[in-house]
Every structure is written in structure tokens, then in C-alpha cells.
């Protein structure tokens, strides 16, 4: 075999391989994409020619012929939220190990941006992992009917999901506060569109009724440190002695605002966060929070998606996986003030 004269000037194509082997380009395509459909000797000649020409498959062409892109979309509501750092790391490492590329999209806490991104990814990705989806149930279900989807922290019948069990940790947090003498506790709610926020409030209100203590709902608040100031003011006005915040960012913002107002934590008010993000233990005081295996949740979501993309690989095809959580007690919770 001799190389094509133009080979030094441009990347090799299947037509170059076909010309070198004296076969049709379609035969080369079959030999490289579905080798079992081509005669063993012919396939060997084609593979030898491809190696000689340093042929690299065109990913777009491969996608057109196989229907696969080798990419998976990962959608998060806010890429600046540290909660998603570990989740993104988990999906990235698991996808890389499986030979996939991660396409990361920040949906900006917007259902419109999220819906648009999912529609566009139908053309450029084999599947989607969507964290804390802000879409309505029926919209998310419709999207999952068009492209394989696994949701993280969003439970919609018919959509495979990884659920982080923060409601059980919320009950743990309430028991911790009750053990410290608190009888008036507030839940600082997250966005209206957050299913996990609603699930935590339900768990807290039920547990409070069973235990005979008061539970008040404040908010909704955006899941940012900036909104923590308004949340702290609302908590002071409601005259509760302890708060369980939707996430650590709100809780950290509350710590800052309470300090500005001269309200001591935990002497005057106890604060509990959720997620145990990086930096939660660096706060003043260090934040008591609900911790969960976030990176593992990302890995499990990828495994569930790949089991759907590659059913012949033999992986377990689960429709739901629940990740355990636990309360990490630090310095932001203490005994209830005696004058309340």
C-alpha cells in the first residue's frame, strides 16, 4: 500500500481508505462502525489502511451514522453555587471513565433556559442529567420522552432520579434543636419551583406536629448568600429561636446579617444549613448543616443514565436511587435562650 499524495495536507477520510483498499466508502464505514458486518479479511485491510493514514473518525459523521454523539449534557441551576461543584466533579469523572464528554450548562435558575437547553441538547447529546430541575412535572416528563434523562433531586414519576434524602436530615435537625430546648423553629424556604424545598418543609412540619413544637415557614428566598439578609430579618421578626435554612448559602448570609444586627449565634439564635458546602466549617461560628454524598450522587446519576444508553452492557437499570444524609453539628446551634 502507498499513501495518498494529499495525505500530508489534510486529514484522511473514509474515501482515502476506500481508494487505498479498492472498496466502496460504505464498506469502509461499516468496517469501522459495525465491524461484525464486514468480511474478516476485508476488515483487516481497511483497519491496516486506516492506521497507515492516521485516520481519526469525525465525531459528527460518527454521530450521524450511529445516532450517538459520545456526549452527555449536565444541567445545573447555578454553576456558582458550591453545592454543584461536587456533583459536577462526580458526573465528570464517571463520564470520562466511560468515554463520554460532559457538556455543562448553567440554567440560571430559569425554567425557560432549562427547557431551551434540553431541546438543543437533543441534537448534540446522547442523554441529559438535570440537577434540581425547575421545570413543571409534565414538561420534564415530556422532555424525558424525547431523550434519556436522569434527574437529581427531582422526583417525577416516569423520570429516573437520584434523590438526596434531605427530608430525613431535616427531621434530625429538628430533633437536635428540640434537644437544645428550642420550641419555636422556622424553616427558611428556597425557591417556589424547588421540589426539594417543599419536601423538607413537609417533613419538618409533620415532625414538629408529632413532637409538639411550633414550626413556621419563612420565604421563599433565592438560594444565595445575598438573600440571607432578608431571611435573617424575617427570622428575628417572627421571634423564633432557631432556623433551618434551605441551603448553606442562605444560612451563611443569615450569619452575616445577624452579626451586623448584634444578634449572637448561637446564644440568641441557632442556625442550621443544608448541603455542607466547602467553607461551611470556616464560618463564624462554623455552620451546623445537613451533609450528603453529593459527588456520589453525580456518579450514580451517570451510572443510571449509561445503563439506559447501553442496555447490552449489563448494568443494573434503576429508576430511583436514594442517597442518605446526616446532620453535622458545629458551632451555629446551641441551647435556646431562656427568655423566649
TrEMBL record:
Organism: Arthrobacter humicola
Keyword Transferase: no
Start and end residues of each stretch annotated as Disordered: 317-340
A Pfam family annotated for this UniProt entry: Peripla_BP_3
Domain of life: Bacteria
InterPro entries: HTH_LacI, LacI/GalR-like_sensor, Lambda_DNA-bd_dom_sf, Peripla_BP_I
Record-linked SMART domains: HTH_LACI (SM00354)
Alphabetical list of CDD domains matching this protein: HTH_LacI, PBP1_LacI_sugar_binding-like
GO molecular function: DNA binding
Protein name: LacI family DNA-binding transcriptional regulator
The HTH lacI-type domain, residue ranges: 12-66
Keyword Glycoprotein: no
Keywords assigned by UniProt, alphabetized: DNA-binding, Transcription, Transcription regulation
Amino acid at each position: 500500500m502507498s499513501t495518498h499524495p494529499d495525505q500530508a495536507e489534510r486529514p484522511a477520510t473514509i474515501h482515502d481508505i476506500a481508494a487505498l483498499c479498492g472498496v466502496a466508502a460504505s464498506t469502509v464505514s461499516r468496517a469501522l462502525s459495525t465491524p461484525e458486518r464486514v468480511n474478516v479479511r476485508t476488515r483487516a485491510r481497511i483497519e491496516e489502511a486506516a492506521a497507515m493514514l492516521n485516520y481519526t473518525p469525525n465525531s459528527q459523521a460518527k454521530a450521524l451514522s450511529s445516532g450517538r454523539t459520545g456526549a452527555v449534557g449536565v444541567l445545573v441551576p447555578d454553576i456558582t453555587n458550591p453545592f454543584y461543584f461536587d456533583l459536577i466533579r462526580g458526573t465528570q469523572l464517571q463520564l470520562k471513565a466511560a468515554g463520554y464528554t460532559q457538556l455543562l450548562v448553567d440554567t440560571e435558575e430559569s425554567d425557560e433556559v432549562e427547557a431551551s437547553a434540553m431541546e438543543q441538547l437533543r441534537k448534540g447529546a446522547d442523554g441529559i442529567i438535570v440537577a434540581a430541575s425547575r421545570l413543571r412535572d409534565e414538561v420534564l416528563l415530556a422532555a424525558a420522552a424525547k431523550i434519556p434523562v436522569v434527574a437529581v433531586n427531582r422526583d417525577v414519576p416516569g423520570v429516573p432520579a437520584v434523590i438526596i434524602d434531605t427530608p430525613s436530615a431535616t427531621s434530625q435537625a429538628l430533633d437536635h434543636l428540640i434537644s437544645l430546648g428550642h420550641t419555636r423553629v422556622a424553616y427558611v424556604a428556597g425557591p417556589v419551583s424547588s421540589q426539594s424545598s417543599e419536601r423538607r418543609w413537609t417533613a419538618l412540619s409533620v415532625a414538629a406536629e408529632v413532637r409538639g413544637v411550633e414550626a413556621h415557614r419563612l420565604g421563599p428566598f433565592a438560594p444565595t448568600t445575598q438573600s440571607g439578609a432578608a431571611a435573617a430579618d424575617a427570622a428575628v421578626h417572627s421571634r423564633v429561636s432557631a432556623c433551618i435554612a434551605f441551603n448553606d448559602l442562605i444560612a451563611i448570609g443569615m450569619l452575616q446579617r445577624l452579626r451586623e444586627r448584634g444578634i449572637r449565634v448561637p446564644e440568641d439564635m441557632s442556625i442550621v444549613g443544608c448541603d455542607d458546602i466547602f467553607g461551611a466549617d470556616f464560618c463564624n461560628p462554623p455552620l451546623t448543616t445537613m451533609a450528603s454524598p453529593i459527588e456520589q450522587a453525580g456518579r450514580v446519576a451517570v451510572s443510571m443514565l449509561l445503563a439506559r444508553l447501553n442496555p447490552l452492557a449489563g448494568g443494573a437499570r434503576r429508576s430511583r436511587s436514594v442517597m442518605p444524609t446526616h446532620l453535622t453539628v458545629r458551632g451555629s446551634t446551641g441551647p435556646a435562650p431562656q427568655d423566649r
